[in-house]
Amino acid sequence: MTASLAGLAVTQQLRAALDRDGFAVADRVVPPKTAELLGLRLDQVLDRRYETGVFPDEAYYRPGTTDPRAPRHVVNAWKCDRLVAAVTLSAALGELAAAVFGWNGVRLAVDTVWFKPAGSQAVEYHREFEYFTSLDQPDVASCWIALDDAGASNGSLEFATGSHRWGELQQAEQSDLFSRHRGRNGVHAVAQRQGHPLQIDTVQVPAGGGAFFHGRIWHGSQPNSSQLPRRAYGIHWIRADAELRADRSPRYLFGRYKLAGSTALHESFFPLVWSADGRRSAWIEPFLAGGPLGG
Ligand SMILES: O=C(O)CCC(=O)C(=O)O
What we know:
The protein is α+β, with helices and mostly antiparallel strands and about 300 residues long. Helix content is about 30%, strand content about 20%.
């Protein structure tokens, strides 16, 4: 990573907060104008209008059919729209993430759209890392960007502060707790079972602000009880040299993009966004300029 960015006082403060709390809030991750444009283009993606012609990997919202109170969730929207991708694949944002997490390079793993209409339900507590256990290094560096002003009143992102340091429960026990308790009660049950106090903190930021967060931190959000939509966009990077584990079949997205006879993650699907030695997937710039996805 460049000494300049990692050495900045603001980066060091973010890194210290991330280490201590498992998350670090930044009032400005992208400029407000970028947040506004992202919101407009992601509205189109939710409406199933795809600038690139490529569909997202997952889209849990169908206009006119989906329960209007359900949070609208899309995965890998960057593939659908080059303006969205310009943010997702931004070398500057990747470099900042690498500096905050102390990594030598980042590859994009996946993005996540979280649009909560007025009156929308909660997002259940979860941890990103559980979706990444197919990797030999299942570390995830995440950044959540608010596209509207966000706070406790409209169901902003919230964290169980410090829970990235909690131990692991047996999977069966964890599933059992979440089958019996919902939302904050679920994470409270996990904290109690492990003997940790529970502290919940909610991110309060203007549009364009957000939070970097650790793959092992428990997080979710409350219903949006305001009269306006609360929209957000998440970017999740993995280490530049991460590969698939060789000892078991890959799950989730990683199974979909498994190459025959190889544990490598192909850069067409998991592009190298920024690395300390100056590498970046060569197809990104031509794609952003109008070329095909994946080069
Ligand atoms: O935006 C939200 O309400 C939830 C976001 C979230 O859970 C995530 O980014 O993993």
